[in-house]
Design a protein that fits this description.
single chain; alpha/beta; Quinone Oxidoreductase, Chain A, domain 1; Rossmann fold; seven-stranded mixed β-sheet; six-stranded parallel β-sheet; 10 helices; 17 strands; globular; binds zinc ion
Length: about 350
């Protein structure tokens, strides 16, 4: 089969590779769509230490074409979305349904072959049924670009109706965070991004206001003026300056949820302010299969606008080139069957 293979820093190419065959507990999927996440771009840039020879891609929708000998409850022809990592299924976190905290995870496209390919074999426990009315491109990105901000804002952040929410970084995750904050009844949503198309998309997704931090002498003051006391901030960038901006924007008792991944070491405010105003900083990683099912349900019932979520679809043959182009505000999705 054809697959996009990471060859080393800055290099990814279309190759002919061996077809996967499903183990006893696995299902073989024909990949219908695979979203290109910021993480895939970091992999291809060589920033995440992924082994050359790996096929990236962890946002996958597909159709079941073959079942392993011990798989029950699935049939060929069923459409599915996949959880973004293969979990052990047996550790305390997995048993509690918190498989994003699995102790032995293999992230697709990093520790295990991913979805930028014509086929992929995955354990049946990683699959979520995809309703007929949801296109494959949306099913693919639901597992990460939409379920990750849902986990961060609703589950980890405990978003309540009436809150003022700041979203820092209005890319794939941040845009959906704006829509999810609106859906949960946020009274005010402010999106922060230096990239103009991202700010425009955030307004279209329901943000009340946006801020370009690069055009402000004092971004903290500007953000405080716009948000007038944020109670919940979401950081989707993964840098010290944006984590510190999120913390500085909070009113007393506020929570900052960080989903942006990186190697920076952000600073806490002076302890007198951090303790004295009871701020919280919370890490949030991925989502659970149950949350992905919730996202699919919200989309199927038209509660969540995904009309802007995919900006471009490309064939596998044309996909290698997109890694040398700048990413836009919404997702690019690879369609291996085109
Ligand atoms: Zn991702
Ligand atoms: Zn586990």
């Amino acid at each position: 089969m054809k697959a996009l293979v990471y060859q080393g820093p800055g290099e990814i190419s279309l190759e002919e590779v061996e077809n996967p065959s499903p183990a006893a507990d696995e299902v073989l999927l024909q990949v219908d769509a695979a979203g290109v996440c910021g993480t895939d771009r970091h992999i291809v840039a060589g920033e995440l230490g992924v082994r050359p020879g790996t096929v990236p891609g962890h946002e996958i929708a597909g159709t079941v074409v073959e079942l392993g000998s011990r798989v029950e409850g699935w049939q060929t022809g069923e459409r599915v979305a996949s959880f973004g990592q293969v979990t052990c299924g047996t550790c305390p976190a997995c048993i509690a349904g918190q498989s994003n905290r699995c102790r032995q995870p293999a992230v697709l496209g990093m520790a295990r072959q991913g979805g930028f390919a014509e086929q992929i074999a995955l354990p049946a426990r990683c699959l979520i049924r995809l309703p007929d009315t949801i296109p494959s491109s949306i099913g693919a990105i639901a597992s990460d670009a939409i379920a990750t901000p849902l986990h961060a804002l609703w589950t980890v952040g405990g978003l309540r109706a009436g809150e003022t929410v700041v979203v820092i970084g209005a890319g794939g995750l941040g845009l959906h965070a704006v829509g999810l904050a609106r859906l949960a009844g946020a009274a005010c949503v402010v999106a922060v991004d230096p990239f103009e198309p991202a700010r425009k998309a955030a307004l279209a997704a329901g943000a009340d206001a946006t801020l370009d931090p690069a055009s402000e002498d004092d971004p903290v003051r500007a953000l405080r003026r716009l948000a007038r006391g944020a109670t919940l901030a979401l950081e989707c960038v993964g840098r010290s300056d944006t984590v510190e901006l999120g913390l500085a924007a909070l009113s007393p008792g506020g929570r900052l949820v960080v989903v942006g991944v990186g190697s920076d070491r952000p600073q806490l405010p002076p302890l007198a302010r951090f303790i004295g105003t009871e701020l919280s900083v919370l890490g949030s990683f991925g989502s659970t299969p149950a949350e992905i099912a919730t996202v699919l349900d919200l989309i199927e019932r038209n509660h969540l606008d995904v009309s802007q979520s995919v900006q471009r679809e490309v064939s596998l043959d044309d996909a290698a080139a997109i890694f040398s182009e700048p990413s836009g505000p919404a997702r690019t999705v690879i369609l291996p069957r085109d």
